[in-house]
Amino acid sequence: MLSILLLCCLALSGTEAVMGLQVHFIDVGQADSTLLIDSGKTMLIDAGNNADGRLVVRYLQNLGIEHIDILVGTHPHEDHIGGLDDVIENFSIGQIVMPAKTHNTQSFEDVLDAIAGSGRRITVPKVGDLFQIGESTLTLLAPVRTDYFNINDHSLVFKLVRSGKRILFAADAETVSEWHMIGNKADLASDILKVGHHGSDTSTNTTFIGQVSPTISIVHVGKANPYAHPSQSVLKRIPGTIYRTDLEGTIIVSISETGAISVDTHRQHPNPAWQEVLYIGDSSSKIYHRITCSALPGAALQVGLFSKEEALTCGYSPCTVCKP
Fold first, then answer.
1. H or E segment to which residue 86 belongs
2. Residue 67 exposure: Cα atoms within 13 Å on the Cβ side
């Protein structure tokens, strides 16, 4: 009963009933997906891996969301844009924003195909461009240049201002991009930071974090990930309180009309809008696997499934290797 009541409250808070700004750092494991809701307007920044697409879609649907005003793919790595095609195919979209950077992967091609099928066009922003979500204003701070070798440095970095409070969404920007923002005299000071690149030591350099000086930081990171993210050296140089999706699950940060900041986590209050992916389906062979199976398909073919019953209903057969 409590879960049903909480789901109803989340559904109301996910649409016109929300007062102030809500930022949902959705738990998509070792990937990024962030939902902004303000005055009935919505912005989704990234949508996790391919296997997270259905999780993100269901999360938004459970909140009663039918339309996304601004959809952002911060850069073309699969752990950020993998689920975007699912989102595009399940919601009406106002504006699609991506950097001027391509990637030779099936996941990226799938996103381009979904965009073409939707009849939408990609907006390629430049530093200084403004985006409005309800009463929240977002300014693009990076990428400062368009000739980076490292795809992560092409990440779209936004700074949001709402009710006098500031949030910096650093995507996967690494040290080179950070120094260019500093050199460009970007106003980095923020109350809240979405830590860059899952807390990797390739990002969040000492000068950069000194200029941001957040009181609250969020790390999008997966449990027991193979990259040892987040780096302990990075965690040590971030001031204030740090929340991590691998420890806290989905994290919701709210900024009230008066500028008060509050944080709620899945660990504190289980979030019924979020459902865990328990199995991975292969969209080509129609076989489903345990998430730890040695015979998992490539990323572009992965489909997240929430139960055995759902897998069978969707026409998948069990893997003979992991015997799910």
1. helix 84-90
2. 8
CATH (one of 3.60.15.10, 3.40.50.12280, 3.10.180.10, 3.40.50.1820) for 2-265:
3.60.15.10
Q: Where are the beta strands (DSSP E) in 81-149?
A: 92-97, 122-123, 130-133, 136-142
Query: What's residue 14's pLDDT?
Result: 43
Cβ-contact 42, 131 below 8 angstroms = no
Q: Where are the beta strands (DSSP E) in 112-209?
A: 122-123, 130-133, 136-142, 157-162, 165-169, 192-194
Give the span between the Cα atoms of 143 and 166, in whole angstroms: 19
- pLDDT(273) > 80: yes
At 162 the three-state DSSP class reads strand
Element (H, E) at 303: strand 302-305
Provide the whole-model pTM: 0.95
Asked if residues 120 and 94 have their Cβ atoms less than 8 Å apart, the reply is no
67-108 pLDDT per residue, tens? 999 999 999 999 999 999 999 999 999 999 999 999 999 999
Residue span(s) of the chain under CATH 3.60.15.10 come to 2-265
